[in-house]
Amino acid sequence: MMRSWPGAGAFIDLDAVPLTDRGSRLLIFARPDGGLRVAGAVYERDADRCTHLRRLAVLGADGEQLPVTDVGPEGITFARGAASLTFVDAETLSVGVAADGPPATVLLEAFGTGDDGRPASEVDRTPIRWSSTEETDALDDLSIVIPASGSVSVRMGGTVRQTPEPGSHAKYLADASYRWQEWFGRLPAVRDADLEMVRYAWWLLASNIVRLATHPDIEAVVPSKQGYVAVWQWDSYFISFGLRHGDPELAADQLRLFFSEQAPDGGLPDVVHDGGTLACVADMPPGDLAALARIHGPDSPMVTEADMPITKPPLAAWAARALDQVAGTSVQAELKDGLDRLHRWWFDRPSPDGLPGYEHVYSSGLDDSPLFDDGGPVFAPDLPSYLVMSLDAMADLADDGEDAAEAAAQRSLAEDTAERLLGKRYDVDLGQFVALTPAGTRKTITPFALMPLLTGRLTGPVLESLREALSAPDSLGAAHPLPTVALGAPEFNADRMWRGPVWLNVNWLVIQGLLRSGLDSEAADLAERTVSMVRESGGIHEYWNPLTGARAAGATTGFGWSAALFLDLAVWLAANDNQVADN
User: Where are the domains of the chain?
Assistant: First the structure.
């Protein structure tokens, strides 16, 4: 009998959150008629266009469809145990009938139609074959009667086999339960109030694992199997912060994957996917180019300059050191040469004043932020702040190795960068850090104006001004902080990606900055409000509406870095509560 894991199965609604399995590209959705649809996970393609099985239904002895009555990480239960479905492996499902129940019929309808009108079999090249009596590439309906204790095994792109071996389905169920029991056994300690959502977050991190064709030996944790079926550089860094608490080796692999793709000049790609990498404008999917042309114009260099690099903010040294500190690993030392080359790459980019900027909007991660409304390059305050953090981490590594000269060189560059940031990017009249764009100074307030907190070097009126922005009603003081554009700004839109909604990585970064700047109570308050918003919203989404705290319109759910950073905050809050109690 399958076990439902509290805090995971409760959120797998088979609608916004399909059932999938570690390493699998199969996504199981509910149909309006009560049956199931099996789709595939493909880079840059909506799951609606990737249908493997248009319908999978289990019928009782009376011919009526058995309802789904329970869903958990290990599978789906029909009619309170009369039948069940589980994963055999990454490409194979098993449907079985209870030993003490009546026979049932599994109905399979293959080859749904994609949203472009083509048969999904043509889109996905995954014929379903019935191997017991015949083989065909064009099955519309297939009814298979299963006796008590019997089962059907369905392999996408392979065969349908009735009762492959006696008792096989029970074994598949037991194997699935064991796999998830082992994974949930790695959960770190958190508060009771956060436990249910933490279990769901922990399931998401495992369920978002795939093996990319370019890196078959590495388990890659993708942001989401619905469209985001690749690894993005800063997503992988954020995901590693969560994974480090229960699977440090998997966390390390998320970093290693990108450094295995490092260019000779030290740059890292934005994306690694099944077909290669996205490292410059020439690598961009047509849909992304079309979207950028609409926003910035068809003649924008971000659309036309094929060699323009596309990457993501340099958080790797920080992520590696954070992993080592929790897990006792030595990943930062392992990647040291690549990390130094990455930092040099950023400082070697064209700059008006020695502080690097973003040539392409995608390199910032802020796809539609008003910071880029004037085009690029944009010299925003967040990038130098990340580099100061990274250089401090490298200096700490040098201290570990008792290399005083190396530590001094790293800290000297960090200090110089922090001083330039304060001198060149701080607007005294506004009391905020600002961005330089092709049109001049962009004064729209976003949380990225708070990222200099990460340097740990702000004092006096500058520090106080940033602290006040957290709660100012016309700035970032939303009911559910932090909005990605100030509430009083004309560009604010509560549901439009980086123009208003709350992103967990932004809140998490600001919390780290508050801690680095000695504002511990403000950090704890923002962390508490963040995890409360997630719990009350009923899911782990891509981004949230800052006015309502609900999932924002257009945001996907079951999102990787949101899961990882919610987990990291929950672990920190539990440790912080324990520390307060001990004192």
Answer: 9-182, 470-565
